[in-house]
Each structure stands twice: as structure tokens, then as C-alpha cells.
Recover the amino acids of this structure.
């Protein structure tokens, strides 16, 4: 008596490989997309940190003259994960501008909470505008006239792309930071 042996044919093996391939394809695609997304997020984080560092340097450490602050053309920087193009634009605020028509805020200290319960319903009750202080009296500086104050508007544009990305990616998500710098 001859026993029937069971065997797997080549057709059955090819069908099994096809089914496995169809099941693994979305997983591989998801991993590739996730890796690319992580690459862009890491570069965006690095570009944002760079932009904040440049703006801090401009505000805290740089001289007030336009030539020391402004960069009329894009400056190229290569960081660990990111290629960056940045540009700093400086515009003088004219003396006739309404920029001098502001009030100095006065901040009253928050009263203590009663048994952990907030007693003030709005923040506007704590922070009020002090209209009695003149613009000529800023902190401890005594200004004799508006001409003693120089104001400049500063715009920082940071365009970035991950290393190896296409040049078109520079304009994908630019970062813009605006500030006003004063010299008394």
C-alpha cells in the first residue's frame, strides 16, 4: 500500500509570497513616510531654534547700526541636519510715527488665593495701562525728547530644508520673526 504524501507546489508558494508581499507593502510605505516626516520635523525644529538664537543675538548683543544687523542678501548656513538661508531686514521707525503713542503698562501683584480658589476673574484686573507715566520716563531713564529714542523694525526670514532635499523645499515653510529694537 502506497501512502499519499502531501507536498506544496510551486504555484502555492508563489501565491503565499504574493499575499505576504501585499500585506507588507503598506507597512513598508508607512515606515518610509514616517522616516521622511521625522526628517522634516527635526530640520524644522533646528531651523526654529536657529531663528530664535539669531533674533536673541540681534536684540541683546548687536550694535544698533543697520550695517551690523541687516543682511541685504540671503546668508547660507549649514547646521547638523538642516541647510538654512536667512535674511535680516531693518527699517527705521520715523519720529513722526505713532510708535511713540503708547502707554507704559503697570503690573499689580496678584493677590493671594483664598484656600486655593482664584479671587480675580480676569487677567485685565491685574494688568492695567498706566496713563499717568510719560513716554519720556521709561524705567529709570529720563528722556528729554522723542529724538532721544531710536526705533527700528527688524524682520528675520529663515528659509530651510533638510540636507539632501530639493532646493524648492527652501520655500516650503519659511519662518518669519518680527521685532522692534529701541535705543535710548
Amino acid at each position: 500500500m502506497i501512502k499519499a504524501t502531501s507536498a506544496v507546489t510551486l504555484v502555492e508558494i508563489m501565491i503565499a509570497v504574493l499575499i505576504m508581499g501585499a500585506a507588507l507593502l503598506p507597512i513598508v510605505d508607512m515606515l518610509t513616510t514616517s522616516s521622511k516626516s521625522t526628517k522634516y520635523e527635526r530640520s524644522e525644529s533646528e531651523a526654529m531654534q536657529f531663528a530664535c538664537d539669531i533674533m536673541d543675538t540681534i536684540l541683546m548683543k548687536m550694535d544698533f547700526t543697520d550695517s551690523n544687523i541687516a543682511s541685504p542678501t540671503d546668508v547660507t548656513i549649514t547646521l547638523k541636519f538642516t541647510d538654512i538661508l536667512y535674511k535680516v531686514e531693518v527699517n527705521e521707525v520715523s519720529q513722526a510715527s505713532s510708535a511713540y503713542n503708547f502707554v507704559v503698562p503697570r503690573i499689580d501683584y496678584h493677590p493671594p488665593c483664598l484656600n486655593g480658589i482664584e479671587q480675580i476673574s480676569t487677567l485685565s484686573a491685574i494688568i492695567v495701562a498706566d496713563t499717568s507715566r510719560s513716554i519720556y520716563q521709561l524705567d529709570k531713564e529720563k528722556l528729554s525728547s522723542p529724538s532721544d529714542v531710536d526705533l527700528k523694525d527688524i524682520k528675520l526670514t529663515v528659509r530651510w530644508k533638510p540636507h539632501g532635499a530639493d532646493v524648492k523645499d527652501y520655500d516650503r515653510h519659511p519662518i518669519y520673526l518680527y521685532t522692534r529694537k529701541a535705543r535710548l
Remarks:
- Confidence is low (pLDDT under 50) at residues 97-105, 135-141.
- Helices lie at 10-60, 66-69.
